[in-house]
Amino acid sequence: MDHVALPPNMISSGILPTGSLLESLIHMSNEVASMEKLPCLQARNISIMIRRIKLVSSLFEELQETNCPLPPSSILCLTELFYVIRRVKFLLQGCKDGSCLWGLIQTEFVSNQFYVLVKEMGRALDILPLSLLNLTADTREQVELLHKQAKRVDLLVDPKEVQRREELLQIMASHNEKNRKNRGFIDFVKVREVLSSIGLRSPSDYDEEILKLEAEAEKQAGTGGLIVVSNLNSLISLLTYSKSMIFNDEDEENEKVKEELKRQSASVNRNQDVSSSSQSILPNIPDEFRCPISLDLMKDPVIVASGHTYDRNSIAQWINAGHHTCPNSGQRLIHMALIPNYALKSLVHQWCQDNNIPMVDISPSSSSELERSNSKKKLYEEKAIDHISAIKAATDAVKMTAEFLVGKLAMGSLEIQRQAAYELRLLAKTGMDNRRIIAEAGAIPFLVTLLSSTDPRIQENAVTALLNLSIYDNNKSLIMAAGAIDSIINVLESGKTMESRENAAAAIFSLSMIYNCKVTIGARPRAIPALVRLLREGTTAGKRDAASALFNLAVCNANKASVVVAGAVPLLIELLVDDKAGITDDALTVLSLLISCPEGLEEIRNSRVLVPLLIDLLRFGSAKGKENSITLLLGLCKDGGEEVARRLLMNPRSIPSLQSLSVDGSLKARRKADALLRLLNRCCFQSQNPVG
């Protein structure tokens, strides 16, 4: 169903004609009451909320049937209930269609959303003049009961969901420990129990949940913060890995692969069986030498596109079964090539010789998958051992790889440079040590040179590699010293692909984390206008990257006027209501910085649409959005802002919203709301008692 929306000519006042308002309320209440296939999570909050909506729906229906004129205060009440019920609908839809695991992680936050909506329903009913309405005794009694319940409602958090959430967090911690150090034990019986309790019971359930988590991660990128995005990626990785372990024997395609592997195993020399039998009782295999999938000794280690290493046979079976993601990280594999990890293979051979363990070379077509059977659980539960020598060897291997790729950048053909830049781009994604090693290998000057390449892929790979390298703080100064900034601005202005332009903006954002870089970049006359242009033309991610870069640059006072002159203010105001862009908070944050300079204040005051938008954001914005909205309103009302103050006083929603934030908002929001209320109070007093 389409969302019920207010007619444009009524948005400013927030009040609908009585007939249309009641019709919309009844329609939306019926939509909420008739929702099907409700989720397992928040079951009590959802059922109680639907029951409340059904109760208040009887009020709307009876008022429509009586067809009598309504007092103004009842119109205000019904209008507020319209907004509340619309938010209830969105909340229920989000619980129904969103990720179960993310909902479990946020169980207290979601429960609080139900609580806040019930309290707002109670505040709306505060102004309903029941004595002036022509209602039956039953309806009047139901509304009074609902009002009393809403006024004394308590936050309802299901203790079972809290317990499940804690169990899930423990499982995530074990999984993250395993990914970082190949340590930790995951109890998949417990994993299955927790996931089953929230409705994830089949492989298709897991696949659908992974898609929802990926969608949530994309939505949160740039707005939810690094911790939120990191947690979402951890959940995707855990679910992907759990699916492969829990349903390994139940997946039909895997069964076919295993049958094929059985036939292949029969042709392998019997000595291999002896070798694999001894492997099942091997003590203290270094964790770095175990395949993350089979947990057996890797005899033929290979690297996949994500940068993780697996035994060739295990990862081949995974890919042949139709999977296109890395089992360890959950990251989608952009190609299916298996690159031999010669450095690790040499270390495994040396370890086998030192420990008198037979080592048989395994061809890509053979398999040890069926040879591990009962040993898998025993090996999986064994205590991990940290081998510094293997870690050093892995670091040396990265160093050799980086030096080799830098050589290709320097001397290779166009095709070789394209591939080398791409491989460095991937290598720079996987950790701070890799970023340091790549820079030490001398990659940065060559990548800067490739920014001016006429080949779109080379340019895109070069700017993205520099972006990834810039995440390591020491590399920021190296990139700036290499004269990269002008080339990056060129890519931002006229890159061969939109991804190149957007990653150039992200690189400017990363580099401008350092104050001196803010000054240097801001002094380039083309940098800020190019970011403003991307803010207009880019994808959602590109707009967010551009807004983030503009914010970083605007922290430096010398850059604020340049951002205003480049035309950022009208565009940022447009983006406040652009649902597709999804950067309302980012746009507000930049505007709240720009209002502190005279040019920004003048440009923002010239907007006729901003104040009503800010008032709406005081009610419906995020916590961060509300803080920045108050900052803007306070700045607009100070120093000659009497007209804005009068507009606020005339708007019936502004004062209640500010009063609510002064009580329930964040510390910063409460402080600024109090200051703005005092300013408006003085303005009101002066208008009623003019001097002279």
Automatic annotation (TrEMBL):
Q: What is its EC number?
A: 2.3.2.27
Keyword annotations for this protein, in alphabetical order, are: Repeat, Transferase, Ubl conjugation pathway
Residue stretches making up the U-box domain:
284-358
Family matches, as PROSITE patterns: ARM_REPEAT, U_BOX
Q: Does the keyword Zinc-finger apply?
A: no
In which pathway is this protein known to take part?
Protein modification; protein ubiquitination
Q: Name one Pfam family in it.
A: U-box
EC class (word): transferase
Superkingdom of the organism of origin = Eukaryota
Know the name of this protein?
RING-type E3 ubiquitin transferase
Query: Which taxonomic lineage is given here?
Result: Eukaryota, Viridiplantae, Streptophyta, Embryophyta, Tracheophyta
